[in-house]
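hey can u check if this looks right to u? its 553 residues, i copy pasted from the old doc so theres a chance i mangled smth
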Amino acid sequence: MSNDANRPMEEDDDPIDDEQLDEYREMVEQLGTFPDKVKINSLSMVAEDHADSEMNAAAIYNVIRKPLVNPNISSEYKLPLVYVIDSILKNVKGKYIPVIEKDAKSWLPIVYQALPEDKRMKLRKVWNLWRESGVFEESKWKEMGSCFSEAAPMDTSDPVSNATLEKAGIVWGKDGELILMPQLRGAMQSILDDLQSDVQDELEKVSLERLASIDSDLFVKIKRTAEDSLRNGNAGSPIEVETDQKASEKDLLSFLVETRTPETIEQTKAWEKLNLNYMKETNDIIASLQHLLRDGSSVEKRYTQQEAEDMTGTLAAAAVTAGLLTSGLQLIVNDEKKKSTATSISGGGSGGGGSGVSAFVRVDKKLFTNDGLKKKNDAVIGFLYEVGLPFVSSADGRRFATQVELSKHLDALFKRSQLEKAMALTEERGWYVSDAVFSGQSKQAESGTSSADPAAGDTATTATAEEEADPSTYTQAADESRNRCVICGINFKMFFDNDDGIFKYSNCREIEVLNDETAIEESEEMLVHVTCWRALGAPQLLTPDQALQETMQ
C-alpha cells in the first residue's frame, strides 16, 4: 500500500535536475540591478514549467531566495528579484503560492532592512499589491509584512510632520495605516490618483500613508479638498474632484513661467521665416548617409576591433536616419499630391479659374423638380466635360480628371489590343505536337509549331504578375549615381542583402527613359520606384515629360 501511494507522487514530482537549476541560476544572475521586463517574463515562463510540482517549485524559488537573504549581495540586486517573485505569484501561481506564503515572512524583513528608503516604498508597494490581487490570505499577508507595520511610526517620527498631521486630526493605527473614514479615504485616494496620472509605472506611485510621511502639507491639502467635496455632496462627482485637483496643481506648478530672454524668443520666431528647399537638402543628406554606410561597411577596408565596435553604433544610426528621412519625404510628397488632387477636383487648377466646380456645388436644391431638371445648367455640364473631366482619350472618347488616369486607361487599351492580336494570330490546334515529335523521330524544338500560343500566354501572365507583386520585392544594386527615383525625385531605401553580400535599393526597378532632342543618346537606363512606375500605368519606357529633369542630370 505504501509503495502504491508513493508512486504517483514521484511521477508528479519528476524532480528537476541540477543542470536546469544551474541554467535558471545563470538567468537570475543576468537580471542584475535593473528590472528588465523581458528577463523577468523569461524567468516566469521557465518557472511555469514546474508550477505543478511542489518540490520543483520550491527548488526554483530557492534559487531566487538565496541572493535575497545573502548579506554579501548588494542591495541593488534585491528589488529586481522581488519583482521576479511578484511576477511568478501573479502570472504563474500553482504550487508557488503556498511555498512563498510559508517563507515570505523570513526574507521580507531582511530585504526591507537592506534597501534604501526610496526602494523600501517600492517593496511595500509590491506587498500592498499582493493584498489587492488576493494572492495570500489576509492573516498570512499581514504576518509577512510585519516589518512595514513596525516601520510606519518611525517614518512619521519627525516632530514637525507629527504636529501637522495631529493638528489636521490624522492618526496612525497600530498596523501602520492611517485611520480614516472609508468615504474620506476613497475621496482622498481619487484626488491622489489624479495627481499621479502622469506616472506610468504603478510601483512608482505613492500611497496615502507614504505621502503623509514625506509631504504632510500636501497630504493635509488633499484631506481638506476631499472633506469639502464630501461636505458639498460631490463625493461621487468626478468633475468636482477634478476641479479641486486642478486648483491644487495650479498652486503647485505656479512657478512654471517663461524663462527665455526676449532675444532667444526672437531667434526662435526667425525659424518660421526660414525658407529651405527641403527636397534638395534632404536628398543630399540621405545620399551622404548612404555613402557613409556603404563606405564604412566595405570589406576592402581594415579596422581594429575597437574601431569596428565604435563604428557599429554610428553606422546603425546612419542607416536608421536615412530610412526615416526617406519615409518622411515620401509622406510629404504624398500629402502634397493629395492637396493638389483636391485642388484640381475643386476647380482651383482648371482653366476656368475654379468657377465651374464651385458653381456646381452651389446648385440650388430647389431646382431638383420635374420642371427644374429640364432646364439647362451650364455649371453641371461643365463639370462633366471641360471643367471636371478635361482629359479626353483619343481611342474611345472617355474623359478623365487627371493625366495619370488617362495614361492608365491608354496603357490598358494597348495591352488589351496586343493580347487580342496574339490570340488572333494563334494557329488552330497549335498546341498539338507533330507526328514526328509524337513518334520520337524529332525533338519538340524542331517542330516550332506549338510555341506561339504558350509564349503569348506566358507574356500576359508575366506582365500581370509583375504589376501585382509586392513592390518591396523589387530590388536593384545600390548605385550612388542613380540614388533617386526619376519620377518623384525621392531617394531609394537602402538595405544590405545578406545573400548577395551587397547593398541594394528596395521598391526599385530599372527602366528606359527617353532623352530630349538635345541629348547625345536617345535614351538611358534609370531607376524608379515601382510604386511611382505603377502610378503612371506601368509603361515600358518613360518619356522626358514623365521624368523630373533635375534627377536626369
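The chain has 24 helices and eight strands.
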